[in-house]
Each structure stands twice: as C-alpha cells, then as structure tokens.
Amino acid sequence: MTRRNLMLLAVAVAVLGAAPFIGGNYVLRIGTITLMYAVVAISWNFIGGLAGYPSFATAAFFGLGAYAGAIARTAGVPETLAWLLAMLAAGAFSLALGFVILRLRGHAFAIASLVVIEVLREIVTSWDSVTGGGAGISVPFAAATPEAIATYYYWSMCGLAALAFAVLYHVARSPLGFGLRCIRQNEDAANMVGINTTLFKTAAFVLSGVFAAGAGAIYASWTSYIDPADAFDIVISIKAIVMVLLGGAGTVLGPVLGAAAFMALDEFAWSNFLEVHTGILGVLVVLLVLFLPTGISSFSLPDVLRRMRHKHGSPAGASGR
Amino acid sequence: MVPLLELRDVSCTFGGVRAVRGVSFRLKQGEIVGLIGPNGAGKTTLVNLISGVYAPASGQILHRGERVDGMKPFRLAARGIARTFQIVQPFPAMTVLENVMAASLFAARRKGMAAARAAAMEQLEFTGLAPLAHRPAMELTLANRKRLELAKSLAMEPQLLMLDEVNAGLNSAEVEQALELIRAIAARGVTIVIIEHLLKVVMTLCQRVVVLHHGELIADGAPRDVVEDERVVSAYLGARYAERYRRRHA
Amino acid sequence: MNHFQFALNGLFLGGLYACIAAGFSLVWGVLHIINMLHGALIVLGAYVAFYGHEWFGIHPFVSMLAAGLIVGAFGYLVQTGLINRVVTKPVLVTLTLTFGLDLILINAMLLAFSADFRTVVLEHPLGTASFGGVFIPLDRMVAMLLALAMIGVVYAGLRLSRIGRAIVAVRADREAASLMGVDVARTYSVTFAISAMLAAAAGSLMSVVFPISPTTGHLFLGKAFVICVLGGIGSIGGAVVGGMTLGLLESFGGLLFGPEHALTIAFVLLIVLLVFRPQGLMGKKGF
After folding, report:
1. Do residues A120 and A232 make contact, with C-beta atoms less than 8 angstroms apart?
2. Distance between CA A207 and CA A201 in Å, rounded?
3. pLDDT by residue (tens digit) across B127-170?
4. How far from chain centre, in Å, is Cα B19?
5. Whether the Cβ atoms of residue C68 and residue C195 lie closer than 8 Å to each other
6. Chain B CB contacts of A49 below 8 Å
7. How far is residue A19's CA from residue A1's CA, in Å, rounded to a whole number?
8. Is C97 in CB contact (< 8 Å) with chain A?
9. Cys-Cys crosslink for A243: which of A74, A119, A154, A258, Cβ 3.0 to 4.6 Å?
10. Overall average pLDDT of the B213-241 stretch
C-alpha cells in the first residue's frame, strides 16, 4: 500500500472511531450505511475486482442474507448467531450457484448473475408462508433508546467491515489472491501454469456471497423490516461495482475508498437535490467511467487531464472486449 | 523401466475432422524428440492432448504408468508436464517476474510467495530475462516473449517440456541462442519434445524424430532413418532435401 | 379459454417483444455492450406516442415513426458523444456507463412526466373480432404486425444498404472491417440509433397495450435479456424467435402457474439455456 493510501486509511479509521461520539443519530445512520456499502463493495471485489468476473449477484446474496437473518430472528435465534447463520446459508448458496454459473464467462456470466437476483426475489415473494411474501417481514428488536440502537448497529456493521477488510487484505497478498489475478489476466494460461481455476473462482465467489449476506443480515436487523423489492434490488449490485471502480478494482483499499467517496456524494445529492438525486448519481457514474477508469486509489491528475484532451477514444483501434 | 510418457492409440476429433488418429509412442526420460510434419498434421493438437487442453476421444495417455488422459491442465502441470504456446500467452499486465512466479508457486508448488519469487528469479537469470524482471509482460519484444514462455515453463520444474515452434519469427542469431538454451535445459535432465519446422534444428538437436501426417504417426526413429523414409519424403520433406541430406551424411 | 386463444395472445405479445429486443440484440452483437439504457428508450418512445395522442390526437401507431426518428437521433448523439469513448472496454465498464445514462434518463422522465401510470385511450379502438370461438383483439394484432413490419424493414435495410453491410462487417470482425475502410465509430453510432429507433417504435406500439411509467423501463430490459439469450445475441431473426417464444411462454406459463410466475420461469429457463446452449435457439449465425 502506498503511503498516501495508508494515510487515507488512517484517516478513515479515525473518522469511523470518532463518529459515534461526536455525531448524533444522523451521523450514525450515514456511517452505518457507508460501512454496509463498504462490506458490499469488498465482497464484490473478490469476484469482480480480483478474479475479473463481472458478477451482478451481489444483490442476490445481500437479499438472501437479509431474509435468512430475518427469518432466523423471527424464529427466536439470538442476533449474532442469526447473522452467522445467514452468512453460512449464503455461503452454501453461492457454492451451489458458482458450480452452475462460474463455467460461463464474460457476458453470459454477467447475465446469469443478474438474473439470479430476479429469480430469488420471485421465490421469496411467492413463498409467503415463510417470508411474508410481498408484504415483507418484520424483524424483532430489543427495546432500547434510539441512540443505543443506532450505536449498536453502527459498531456491528463496523465489526463486519473490519473483518471483511482483514480478509481482503490477507487474500490479496496470498497465493489465492495472486492466482485470482492471474485468472483475471488470462484464465487459460492460469490453468496451464498449475492454478486450479475452478477452485479459486469458487472461493472468490463464496467469499463475495458470505460478506454481502452478512451486510444484508445486519441491515435487516437494523431497519427491523425488509421486503423483496428492498432486499433484492439490482441497484445494490450496481452500486457495489461503481464503488469499487471508483476506488480502484482489485486493490485492497479501493472498495473502502470508493464506498466512502460514493456515499459522500450520494448524501450530498440527496440532501440538496432530492428530485434529481438519481440523475446526479447517473452523471457521477458516467463521469467516473469516462474519466477515472482506474479509480481513486491510483488516481493521478495528469492522467485525467490527458484523457480529457483525447476527446475521441478509438473504437476502431484497441482490441479486446 | 516405465516410460515417462506413453500414448496408446490416441485419437481426437474436431467437428468431424480426425485431427489425431490412433497415435502411439513412448517417451523415455531424458530423450530429446523432434515432432515434425506438414501444417495441419496434428502436432499442436497432440501437444494439447498431452497437456490436457483437450481430452482424447479414444485411447490412453499414461504418465509413468498412470493414466492421465482427461486430466485438467493444472493437474498435469503439477505432475511436471509443461508446454510452450506458439502464440505466446502471458499475463499481460503483470510483470515478467510475476508471470514466472505464477509457475513456481502453483505448478512447482513452492512454499510461499518469497520462495516462489526466488525460484522465479533463478529462471529469469537462466533465460537472460533478469534485467526485465519488473517490466509488464506486454511490453516485451517477440524474442523476449518467447524467452518468457520458456522461463515460465522451466519455473514449473517439469519432467517433460513440450516446445511448440519456439523459433517461429526469430532471426538466425536468435535461433542459435534458443538452441543453446534448449541444450542447457536438456542437460538438466528435462525430457524435451520439440515441434519444429526448421529441420536444421531438429536434425542437430534431436536423437529421435517422430513424424505426423494427417493426424497419423508415419515415422518414428533416428533422424537419418526418418529422412530416408519414403512416406516422410513424399509427405513432407521432398525429394530434394532427402537427396541433399543423403549426400551430406553419406 | 381454449389453448388457441392463449397461443394467439402469446403471439401478439411476442411480436411486440421481438421489437423490444431486436435493437438490444443488435447493439449487443455489434458493439458488444449491454445497453442498460434500452428500457428507458422504450419508455421514452411510449411517452412520445402518448403526448402525440394527448396533444395532437395522433394515433400511436402513426407516431411510431416520429418516435422512432426522435429517439433514434437521440441515440445517435449519445453513442457518438459518450459511449463511443469506451466502447472497446470490458463489458463491466460499458454496462456501468449505460446504467448511469439510464439513471439520468429515468430521472429526467420522472421530472417531466411524473411517475403516474398513463394509458393511451383510443377514441376509435378497433375492437375485438371473433373467429371460431377465439377472440382477436384487433389493436393488438395490428400492433404486432406493425412491429414485425418495422423489424422487416430494418432487416432489409441491413442486408441491402451499404451501411447495413458495414454493420454486418463490424459485427463479424471489427478490426478487419476497419482495415477495409469502414468507419467503425460511425457504424456504431448508426447501429445504436437503429436500436433506439426500434425501441421507441416498440414503446409507441405498446402504449396502446400497457400502461406506461418511467419505472417500467427495467421490466422491459429484463425481457429483452431473456429474448436475446433465447434467440441468440446479435441476430434479428433470433430476436423474433426469442420474442415469440417468450410471448408464448408468458401466455401459457400464466395459464399453468399463474401470471406472477411467468417471468420467473423465463429467467430460470434463461439460466438453463446459458449453461447448456449459450448460443441460443438459433445458433450464432446470420441476421
């Protein structure tokens, strides 16, 4: 990690630690959402950033975790255990799903992973005896002051984020991370050089499933109510991708930086330009893709200026999809 | 002695065309074998079969007496079967060192990133790529890419190394250097199979030559015997070359 | 209702669906991008038809052409100005870009038209004919025929015109086409414009059948996905086959499982197809 990025990380940690003490419920709420998205972004980074597989299934895992956690809670399971069970359930699901769709590549994989969200949402909506159907499910919560509740869930999400970050850090420097990067560069060559690509891809996919589900489970407890449209929202997947691209795909710090930057902009747009806030998000995404393709963590002003001067990229020139 | 590699009646079909038909042969450890034949004869397909890229439609492939046909490439890599590609396939955005490290780490099973890195540097020294260790692989010239291929294959610490037209696109000075390298590799005890169109290379380097034509193995023996073989002459070498060879080695 | 009725309903729907997907498939096959903006373009076309009817009394079937031209021009500009800059990048990047554009367009439409569902109420609907126990909603039938006619015109244009052949060439091999003098960037822009035109035309036709709102864009996009995978990416004929198949599936699926499950069934089918037959029902070849 470069010095600049390390400093950014230190600042982030300081801010996170201080937030519950200096801010009110509003700050805690923003903080919790940001941390939630940081987890979701990190989870996508495993499969999309490191392995290079354009997965949209993030929202599917998130929703699965939310519902699994909610159902466990309504069955009386204590909270932290419910969250762990949700993560386990998502791990099993992503293992099975990976078996089916990880053999696809590129566009086909992207579509299949996208469609899983819809299928899960439909199943949840139909299976109303267990999930409450389209009406959603209420999650029991302990009686406490709003401040105590907000603080508790803030620290829970913070804990999950710290865990996810630690795992990402470890994986990135390990043979698994190295192998995933090789797969991203050239999957066939990776196979030839001794990498069990199926195993590695599956590991990345399961990691992405487990953490996204954890975020979903905590989210369900925190908001104490979820419904299918809320939990299985494709925008979650897109936001995860945009955040990681914003921060720098395949890097360790990228997802966190991207989540923080994105949320800051999103909150600003929402507070000040509510009616056009989606549009502003859209503009942000467009600008990001056009001018900041490698993300913040490898941001360099000269590069951006150079890119702006080249007004027409050459569709006829570069090869590769 | 169990042969290092044995093929028994191996066949492989692509969309109706039988690319390899009933090929059988044995490889002893330490041999340097040339694999020649006209374009489309099935040489690369054969290498693909042995390295696990394709599974044979029929027949068996044995490595030290154990069946390996149908195994995925990464398993064969771990067993010590390596090959280079005609069109070099590196990991483009990764450095030269990282490219070779992948092989040490995964195929050769070196323990830990540091050990893999050290082993990779050794191979880079051996192939003369050490000065370029930290350059992205996509920046290399063609000759250096071929060396990178070789370094990667060596870092796999193979028992069997199959070279697929390593000399294509190289000038004669570069070919000489490549030959030196290959001889040094053989001196380490690696068994080599080399697909080559430059007959000069094949004849001087190899103790044994195998000839493929339309997917069939039509000759297998010492270079001078293969060159005299009528079928080989009509299919590939041409009478003029055979005549010249006879006169030179009479 | 007998089975023939369901089949007919499915076919009428299928024609519209084919028009929805044809442009999407074309862009995917030629530009290799997944255009998340496509659903919004369909809705935009529907609004052009709606206001054309509301303000000027023009029948949506007629304003289909105007909608097509307006939105087609819009598409041309978007491709030239924005998408062409990154069109060679990996699918993730282009998808994210088009998604951003989608967000912008949907927000704009929400501001302009509000989220209320609108329906075109025709003063002189063609009504329903009856034939051997089967009811034939004539407006839907005409919509289907117009949709297929539109597709037919585009198909003919692609095969017979110079720009059409350029599109086919670029679809087959971008670099080779470029080496042969084809202006790839312009070809991309024209392709995208055609796609937008087909989308808007479909939207106009559908404004008679479905209520419209900026929020329905994603629904159409989802269907377009399924149709492409069913019919093969980049193939117009495939879009027709896929569209008809989806229409029939939804019609009969609704009969068997209830209409709310029809889309799920389609999606499960899609995953199965992707795994076992990624080239679709039609295979890869041809338009």
Report:
1. yes
2. 10
3. 889 999 999 998 998 888 888 998 999 999 999 999 988 888 78
4. 18
5. no
6. none
7. 25
8. yes
9. A258
10. 83
Q: Is residue B15 part of a domain?
A: no
Burial tier of C132 (Cβ tally within 10 Å: 0-12, 13-18, 19+) = exposed
Could you tell me the residue range of the domain that residue A215 belongs to? 3-17+24-308
User: Which of the listed residues B136, B153, B170 is the one where a domain comes to its end?
Assistant: B153
For residue B170, the 8-state DSSP code is -
pLDDT of residue B79: 92
pLDDT at C287 over 50: no
DSSP string, B26-42: EE-TT-EEEEE-STTSS
Q: Which of these, C34, C46, C196, lies nearest to C99 by C-alpha position?
A: C34
Give the residue numbers spanning the domain of C130: 19-216
On whether ipTM exceeds 0.95, the answer is: no
Between B78 and C6, whose confidence is greater?
B78
Q: Are C188 and A315 inside 8 Å of each other by CB? A: yes
Taking each helix axis from N to C end, the angle separating C262-276 and C236-257, rounded to the nearest 10 degrees, works out to 130
Structure tokens at B205: 């380097």
How much is the CA Rg of chain C, to the nearest whole Å? 18
Q: C93 and A278 in contact by Cβ < 8 A?
A: no
Q: Is residue A112 part of a domain?
A: yes
Pairing between β-strand B5-14 and β-strand B58-63 as defined by DSSP bridges: antiparallel
CA angle B107, B109, B110 (to 5 degrees): 125
Residues of B in Cβ contact (< 8 Å) with A186: 89-92
The H or E element that residue B213 is part of is strand B208-213
Q: Count other C-beta atoms under 10 Å from residue B103's C-beta.
A: 29
Higher pLDDT, A315 or A125: A125
